[in-house]
Amino acid sequence: MHNHAIRFTNLFSFLSYVIMRMSINTDAIWLCSYPGNFTANSTFGRNRDLILSTLASQVSVNGGFYNATVGQDPDKVFALALCRGDSSSEGCASCVNSLVQEVTTNCPNKKEAVSWGSLGACLVRYANRSIFGQLYPDDLEDMTYIGCNVKTITSNLTQFHQTWEYLMGHLVKIASMGSSRLKYATGEANLTFYKIYALMQCTPDISQSDCDFCLHRNVAYYESQCNQQRGGAVHSSNCLFRWEFYLFYKAIAPPPPLPLSNATITKDKGGTPPGTVVDVVVSTIVFNIALVAFIYVLLRRRNRRQETGNGHEIDMAESLQFDFSTIRIATNDFSIDNKLGQGGFGAVYKGRLLDGQDIAVKRLNRNSTQGETQFKNEVFLMARLQHRNLVRLLGFCFERNERLLIYEFVSNSSLDNFIFDPINRSLMDWEMCYKIIVGIARGILYLHEDSRVRIVHRDLKASNILLDRDMNPKIADFGTARLFEMDQTQGDTSKIVGTFGYMAPEYVKQGHFSVKSDVFSFGVLILEIISGQKQSCFHFGEEGDNLLSYAWKSWREGTALNLIDPILRNGSSSEMMRCIHIGLLCVQENVANRPTMASIGLMLTSCSTTLSVPTKPGFFMHTISELDNSELTGSDQSNSRSVKYSVNEASITDQEPR
After folding, report:
1. Is 339 annotated as ligand-binding?
2. Which ranges of 476-627 would DSSP assign to H, the alpha helix?
3. 128 pLDDT above the threshold of 80
4. Which is higher by pLDDT, 131 or 647?
5. Which CATH number fits domain 324-408: 3.30.70.3270, 3.40.50.150, 3.30.1120.10, 3.30.200.20?
6. Which of 240, 216, 53, 46 is nearest to 143 (CA)?
7. Which of 1, 140, 245, 618 is the most buried (most CB within 10 A)?
């Protein structure tokens, strides 16, 4: 193939295609948007460099695809990386790392750019607008590269076109039907003297219909510009298409059968050649048998998952699994100097991988059967969750009787180390506290309504809210979380787990939990952040009011400002009073009166939203010894059962950097 370097700065002044009638490029390709510049050393520039620096390490441990955001509007940066489906983990990271250097060098001050690796081996893309889960906007010209081989096909054109078009259509369908982790397909078809090899791939964040559209569009681009060329490729912002007369990809799994892949399509005096009908019938029968077998296997697999119960099966995906030796080296053999904290089911250690990435490793106790359940639960849930306000699961290790969970390292420890520590508390202002409150709300809303599964956390507390270096909150510790059906409103349990002071009264007394249980915990968090006081340690007055009852009485008497920590008094008093009001709505004793997280999000971000008058909050004592006998047994008169208590004053994942 002939190499050809390319560069466009005024991308949007051109038509959708970027390269036409050119030979396939064997070097990296990069395109910069126009207009849309940023100045050197700007916040946007720093955010861009920061997020691009994480792509290589993250994409290799996330199965070949990774997307993330960093910063706040208007300096927010969206970025993604994709590796070809046949890439190794090492090759994937190396390709992405090379593209990051390429695009930052050649698009030094552009707010949007895309770069493709050699022969489509990987893709790196960033922008100042959301680029996840959607095709390129119709009002902008797509970032697309079209490359054609220099040689042309001169014989058997009818046979070639029929076979080629059938193979392309088949692979588009297979690739677009892929999962949310991989949309990729390869295949081949026979000609009289040659074989056609083809590859299709989409970024897995887009839908099946968008992937189908993207690939069909790429095929159409190729046909309009490279017709009868002996191979070619079309790379766009969301999908990749390439074909050749030689094998250019690595086979990672047998592709679904192609009905006509072994049929040689020729014409003999205008009739059908002997054997063609037989070949077609046999191929069709084979395809149908394979399809039935494939559906049967899928149904069996789904049934097995249902039989094992929601939230209790580990997906042993190689892309998420770490070797024990790798983690042992990263944590210096779990050195005491690297220990971040100790929880009810194990310890948490800081580690550093060979590529320089810092990680947090939760090492569950070997003799803890409850810990094994917690481990399976966290892997099952966290592997499916991606949100900026949730701690990201990077992988796990299940080896040598060791159960390890590997998370992103969050540098600023947990929220309780700021709001309850006199020294760290002095570093906070109201603007920072308000950002933390809103961020926690967004994370909980994602769990309750916006993720692919509905999750009730059940242990939201200050020590389970971690803070990154920009003080963005990230919800952690999903060991006690429960998976809900999307239309399910309540669950019941005979064993209470969590932390007193944050648990809703209906959960403590009767074992009933729902999304409103998390809402109650969020209300406690709001009042703790504003007051700087810990709910489980707060006593006021002769009656020994706890934080919730004191806040409610102060609000009713018009003295709620007394609840605000003096350190925050320079902030917006109206915002603080509104947050106290929202916190009291969240901790109401009656479950039905508590707002949903969607409503809370509107209350926090829109001052025009009218707030209802809160009723009395749920009152319960601070320790088991202060509960009367009826509360200790937790007898539920409606179903005559007892609730067992498991007090969890220590978080499973309390990260406390040294």
Report:
1. no
2. 505-510, 515-531, 547-556, 573-586, 597-605
3. yes
4. 131
5. 3.30.200.20
6. 240
7. 618
Domain ranges in the chain with CATH number 1.10.510.10:
416-647
Name the band, by pLDDT with cuts 50, 70 and 90, for residue 480: confident
459 carries an active-site annotation: yes
Catalytic entry in 205, 459, 468, 654: 459
DSSP 392: P
Question: Please, what is the Cα angle at 546 between 540 and 549, to 5 degrees?
Answer: 100
Angle, helices 157-176/208-225, rounded to nearest 10 degrees: 160
**At residue 559, what are phi and psi to the nearest 5 degrees?**
-120, 30
Task: Please classify residue 216 by burial: count the beta carbons closer than 10 Å to its beta carbon, then call 0-12 exposed, 13-18 middle and 19+ buried.
Answer: middle
Numbered ranges of CATH 3.30.200.20 in the chain = 324-408
**How many CB atoms sit inside 10 A of residue 631's CB?**
17
* Structure-token pair, residue 464: 């389970």
What was the pLDDT predicted at 514? Answer: 86
Which stretches within 41-88 are classed as H helix? 43-61
Strand runs labelled E in 354-401: 358-364, 393-399
Collapse the DSSP code of 465 into the 3-class scheme (helix H, G, I; strand E, B; otherwise coil) and give the result.
strand
pLDDT in the model for residue 605: 87
Whole-angstrom distance, CA of residue 457 vs CA of residue 447: 8
CA max distance for the chain = 106
CATH class of the domain whose range is 157-269: alpha beta
Phi then psi for residue 60, to 5 deg, are -75, -25
Question: What pLDDT, on a 0 to 100 scale, did the predictor assign at position 374?
Answer: 64
484: confidence class by pLDDT, cuts 50, 70, 90: low
Which residues make Cβ contacts (< 8 Å) with residue 344, sequence separation at least 6?
648, 650, 651, 652
pTM value is: 0.49
Tokens of 300: 């069996």
Return the CATH fold of 11-148: Killer Toxin P4; Chain A (3.30.430)
Q: For the chain, how are helix, strand and coil distributed in percent, rounded to 5?
A: 40, 20, 45
- Burial (CB count within 10 angstroms: exposed 0-12, middle 13-18, buried 19+), residue 453: middle
pLDDT of 377-386, one tens digit each?
A: 667 667 778 8
Lowest mean pLDDT among 303-317, 342-356, 384-398, 621-635: 621-635
Query: In the prediction, which pLDDT does 434 show?
Result: 96
pLDDT tens, 26-46?
467 778 876 688 988 899 999
Domain with CATH 3.30.430.20 in the chain: 11-148, 157-269
What confidence tens digit (pLDDT) does each residue in 513-551 have? Answer: 788 999 999 999 999 999 999 887 766 655 557 899 889
| Rounded average pLDDT over 595-610 | 89
Residue of 264, 79, 266, 245 whose CA lies nearest to 158: 266
What's the CA gap between 22 and 128, in Å, rounded?
A: 30
What is the DSSP-derived secondary structure letter of residue 9?
A: S
